[in-house]
Amino acid sequence: MASExxxxxxxxxxxxxxxxxxxxxxxxxxxxxxxxxxxxxxGYGFIMISWGFGVVLAIYAVxxxxxxxxxxxxxxxxxxxxxxxxRDVIPYILFQTLGAAAAAGILLAWWGNxxxxxxxxxxxxxxxxxxxxxxxxxxxxxxQYWPSKLxxxxxxxxxxxxxxxxQVFPLWIGAFAELLMTFLLLLIVLAVTDADSPFFNQSx
Length: 204
Known about the structure:
Shape: globular
Order of helices and strands: HHHHHEEHH
Radius of gyration: 19 Å
Distance between the termini: 32 Å
Strand order of the largest sheet: 1-2
Structural class: mainly alpha
Number of helices: 7
CATH topology of the domain at 1-116: Glycerol uptake facilitator protein
CATH class of the domain at 1-116: Mainly Alpha
Number of strands: 2
């Protein structure tokens, strides 16, 4: 019995790995493709569709197994609302992170040399391209340009130019934007997955 519980948990954790991998591979892949074509193709519309398509594929692929959280914020929201056990939170987030890293690694292997040839180090599309493989505030909106090393292999190592608050877009605006978008995301996710809602089946 205990072994079955462990096996079930491992499958759910692995499902989060797969779901997040799918999301990042499709979504971030479209963004990278847009960069290497200078934004002319596939275009921003295709990027948005790709992110949505990645979410849908992930939900259909692993939703019945793990719930397809594919986002640590969703996992925390489910734990807070008692829709999952707290002991599963850290493994869920860990496997989500690993899945995202694996997808980013594949994209880096595919496109890394192309990006390097387009804009070789030390700049390496520091304001845009480097953010595909790391996470930091977009310096075009939230910061001034100042070099600081990113956590990337030397072959594609660039510079993040974020170091101080942008006077046009204060940091609190960026923080509020992230808070608002996360709130709306979790509101929608919790609403469409509420089994007590009379529209539960329709929303899914």
